[in-house]
Write a structure and sequence with these properties.
This protein has 13 helices and 8 strands. With 359 residues, it is an alpha/beta fold. It has 3 domains: 117 residues, Nucleotidyltransferase, domain 5; 96 residues; 121 residues, no CATH class. Helix 6 runs antiparallel to helix 7. The longest helix has 38 residues. The two termini are 46 Å apart.
């Protein structure tokens, strides 16, 4: 088996072929980030028909090349940059570092340590991620414009207006306003322009929400049946998780989301502390679900949170426990949805899914 490691950069990519049997460097090539050079890379790799590609940070700078290779039937795995750093540290390179060494390190990680993740073509989760990121940007932009409009209205009207003002009401008041100075006239014009921008952004947000809802319905996900999971939250969870089967179990998913506590033990002393690692965007989505459940008496999460509080835990400690349980249920739901789409599930298998809260 020949493993071709790739060290990607914005304008160039370096590929190094390594024989997995004897760890021998068989050659290297450097290409530019263009379709013509991608074709040259494939031509160069045909010298080894039995090959696999190991791309460092395939979801980052290597994303475009990775998806191009996958679309042509090539076997590609994603190698984390932290793993290649370990290989360089343990090698006899004398702290040397260049693109060829980095590409070879990615190949070594793939076949020797097995620290990789198979890359699949982008599917519905990729679509949801694009829509979710666009919607988040528009919501942030809407908030900035609302603050700007509020500041202008405070300068135009005595005492301003409340922060929960409606855009249409602001437009009516602005049209009826008669400025007495040139500065106020300019403020009125700018405020009306901001009102127009807010209307346009709100239309775009509503349109994106409709498209997200359509994609969620097409995916057949059951996430929204979980208390606290709405349309936007479900899209974010699916988009950031990707293929749920890439996690060996619910503990691996909890570690990825940063909801698993970190053990800090020494001798007879043992304690756990809050994890600051993992996907923080996904962690935030899980936090929203947990807070909603903790405040909804009819949910399982509410009873679980109250039970932890009665055991002497603080509100924050109980919330951390609840987030861990929410992450478990989310992963099981996504796993079952993935199994239902990939192959028909028997009724017995579906009935064995556990969704209740446990200690």
């Amino acid at each position: 088996m020949i493993v071709i490691g790739i060290d990607p950069h914005k304008s160039t990519h370096t590929a190094t072929a390594v024989n997995s049997a004897n760890n021998r460097d068989l050659g290297s090539v450097r290409i530019r980030s263009s379709f013509d050079d991608y074709a040259q890379l494939i031509t160069w790799s045909k010298a080894w028909p039995d090959r696999i590609w190991a791309v460092e940070n395939a979801s980052g700078l290597g994303h475009h090349l990775t998806q191009w290779l996958v679309s042509r039937g090539e076997a590609v795995v994603d190698v984390p940059s932290t793993a290649t750093a370990r290989v360089r540290q343990l090698s006899r390179g004398g702290r040397r570092k260049n693109d060829r060494i980095d590409a070879a390190a990615a190949a070594c990680v793939a076949f020797s340590q097995g620290d990789f993740r198979p890359v699949a073509p982008e599917g519905q989760t990729g679509v949801l991620r694009v829509l979710d990121e666009r919607r988040v940007d528009l919501v942030k932009q809407n908030g900035r414009l609302v603050n700007q409009l509020h500041a202008l209205l405070r300068e135009l009207f005595p005492g301003g207006i409340g922060r929960d003002f409606d855009t249409e009401d602001a437009a009516k008041q602005l049209k009826a306003f008669r400025p007495e100075t040139q500065a106020d006239a300019m403020r009125k014009n700018v405020a009306l322009e901001i009102v127009g921008d807010l209307r346009r952004i709100q239309f775009q947000i509503d349109d994106l929400s409709t498209r997200v809802k359509t994609e969620l319905a097409a995916s057949g996900t059951k996430l929204m049946k979980i208390n606290g999971v709405g349309i936007a939250t479900a899209a974010r969870i699916l988009a950031r998780t990707g293929d749920p089967t890439r996690f060996a179990n619910e503990a691996a998913f909890a570690s990825y989301t940063g909801t698993a506590p970190v053990e800090v033990a020494s001798a007879d002393k043992q304690r756990h502390r809050l994890s600051r690692y993992g996907d923080r965007t996904l962690n935030s989505a899980i936090h929203i679900v947990a807070v909603t459940q903790a405040r909804t008496p009819s949910s399982d999460g509410y009873a679980y949170h109250q039970r932890k509080m009665s055991e002497g835990k603080t509100s924050r400690e109980a919330m951390r426990c609840l987030k861990r349980q929410v992450a478990k249920r989310l992963w099981r739901t996504m796993r079952d949805d993935h199994s239902a789409v990939s192959r028909p599930c028997s009724q017995a298998a579906l009935g064995s899914s556990r969704t209740g809260w446990r200690r």
